Every structure is written in structure tokens, then in C-alpha cells.
Amino acid sequence: MRHRKRELMIKYKISMLDLLICACLKILFGANRSYKYIFAFSKWKYGKEDKLSRFYTEYYFRVKVGKYTYGWERFHNYSAYLESIGSFCSIAGGVRIVEGIHPGYNASYFI
Fold it and tell me: Which SS3 state, helix, strand or coil, does residue 64 take?
């Protein structure tokens, strides 16, 4: 487990101080509630890249989020349905993730 955390720290270029802040927020608010504070801190420190929130999402919820993707923040704890979200994606506000088997060669939509 530590090896995976170290690899993700290198991938996202985050410091031990950032991890300490994450741990403190997680203890204070719990894993799901602390996320909005971690996301706000990450946006403040890293700007558009928000490396800390991507690290947190990949490490704790096992959902990989690509670079420069917008709108993914509300899906951070959908690890039962999501494996990854690609780079340069823009996810609209009304999008929902539902369970089900869907062929990969078709697009899906909901009206």
C-alpha cells in the first residue's frame, strides 16, 4: 500500500505536507466530507491541474482522472461504476452515472 502511495505522489508531484493536510482533513471530516476542502485547497495551490484532489481520488476511491478534465469532481466516489475518466473531457452538470452493461461501440444518452 505504501509503495502505491509513493508512486502516486511522484506521478502527481505532491509533497508530504500536502499529504499531512489531507490526513488531517480526513480525520476531521471523514473521507467523503473532507473531499470538498481538499479540492478547494488543491485548486488554490495547484490551479487548473488540481493535483492533490486527483491524487486523493485515485488513492482512496481508485478512480483515475486525466489531465485538464472538468466536471469530474462530483463523481469522485463512484468507484463502483467508474474506473477512469480520460484527459481533456468536459462533463456537463446534469450528467448521471448509472449501473448497467453497455456495449462500447455505441454512445449512450438520456433524455
Answer: strand
Q: Alpha-carbon distance 13 to 30, whole Å?
A: 24
Q: How many CA atoms lie within 13 A of 88 on its CB side?
A: 0
Residue 53 identity: S
Find, among 91, 60, 96, 92, the residue nearest to 81 by Cα.
96
Asked whether 33 and 72 are in contact (CB, 8 A), the reply is no
Alpha helices by DSSP H, the chain: 2-12, 16-29, 35-46, 51-60
Give the tens place of pLDDT for each residue, 63-94.
Answer: 888 888 877 777 666 666 777 888 888 887 77
Q: Structure pTM?
A: 0.73
3-state helix vs strand vs coil in the chain, percent to 5 = 50, 5, 45
Report how far residue 88's alpha carbon sits from residue 66's, in angstroms, rounded to the nearest whole number.
7
